[in-house]
């Protein structure tokens, strides 16, 4: 409501300036009248630009009840009236008592006032947690004994996926379609320099090594890349599979990838509808394919948009799932973390969260608040954290700026139980996580264009909750 009122008031202010300026021009006050008209046009153009260019990173879901709409209208009308009244009174004073000194004061003050207003509009339109983009200035909070540092930053244009290669280098995909590589050769806790390893991708969101090939998931296809001459650049690139459903429903596509203990490649494909019956057999599902691209098949169905998949130490598959934005009644559905079994159906688009008994679908292993947007999923495989963290799932919650920890345990009947806690807060848009060869977690943050390194010092663990 505040943003709407401010915008309407600003537009009224520009309109009033133009009207007064035209009036002054007609009365022979060419300098002041022309200046006001020009300023009004410039301010209007700047306002339109600010309204068009996306300054925020996320895509907020705005639902305004009727009462709020009426309130916005009344407040907006009041803002328009006040703006016009102020400009009118100012112009009356200027024409009767202002003189040359008043003319100079107005010409100097108006741009300053307008610039201050523009700055206020930009700040008001930007979510609070998006206002600090410097990765080193984020207020990241972790559990006792854990510390964070920036491992990679600079050339990356908002990372989308990360993985460590067999050579110990970190490979980073970004939203611009570039694949970077870098290594901490002096072991000081940060990458020395980033180099372009491959480029030309569209919506590159998945990375997984298999032998000496790096498999990449981009819009509608999966490719396998090799650097055969070891010059730091890809020189062999083959298409594993293409024609996957992508961007039919923005921004759903084929997503993160992982190799299973059976040697097959597993990945999620988002739905092509927002909560409707899925017409594409390869969408709203987890798919499996051989490394050479043959034998593509559906492993599990009923998943609206599983952005990433991961295997635990028992070789069991798990995935997050982003629920649709709302049902026919406008209710918000929880996002999910699921144990994926062969042939399982996970509810989309019929049930979300805990399904009814005998509904024919599997319930979520863990639920996240609506619109959390679980993205990256990995199981901690290092030895530098406390033993309790071993083989627990780390899930990045994009829209909340948080990283969740999901402990999973298998019952004697083969089913899994879970317990969810917060691993870290204060990130901007965390999108992927991976265990590094040094046993530490690395978290890619889309919003700050950085990769964080999370270390643990037992001497600093006071045994206190986060």
Care to give the gist of this entry?
The chain has 466 residues and is of the alpha+beta class.
Helix proportion: 10-25%
Instruction: Tell me how many strands there are.
Output: 25
Main sheet specs: 5 strands, antiparallel
* CATH level 1 name of the largest domain: Mainly Beta
The unreliable regions are: 57-66
Q: Can you tell me the number of structural domains? A: 2
In N-to-C order, the SSE pattern is: HHHEEEEEEEEEEEEEEEEEEEEEEEEE
Q: Quaternary status of these chains?
A: single chain
pLDDT average, as an integer? 85
Strand order of the largest sheet: 1-22-21-20-19
How many angstroms separate the termini?
Answer: 34 Å
Give me the secondary-structure category: alpha+beta
What is the CATH architecture descriptor of the largest domain? 6 Propeller
Radius of gyration: 27 Å
Overall shape: it is elongated
Task: Please name the fourth-level CATH homologous superfamily of the largest domain.
Answer: TolB, C-terminal domain
Structure explained in plain terms:
This protein has 466 residues and is of the alpha+beta class. It has 2 domains: 2-126, no CATH class; 138-460, TolB, C-terminal domain (Neuraminidase), CATH 2.120.10. It has helices at residues 2-26, 30-52, 66-125; strands at 141-142, 146-153, 159-164, 170-174, 178-182, 194-199, 206-210, 213-218, 221-226, 236-241, 254-259, 265-269, 285-289, 297-301, 309-311, 317-321, 335-340, 366-368, 374-379, 393-397, 402-410, 416-425, 430-435, 441-445, 450-456. It has a 5-stranded antiparallel beta sheet, with no helix packed on it. The protein has a 4-stranded antiparallel beta sheet with strand order 2-25-24-23, with no helix packed on it. Helix 1 (2-26) packs antiparallel against helix 2 (30-52) and helix 2 packs across helix 3 (66-125). The longest helix has 60 residues, at 66-125. Mean pLDDT is 85; it is low at 57-66.
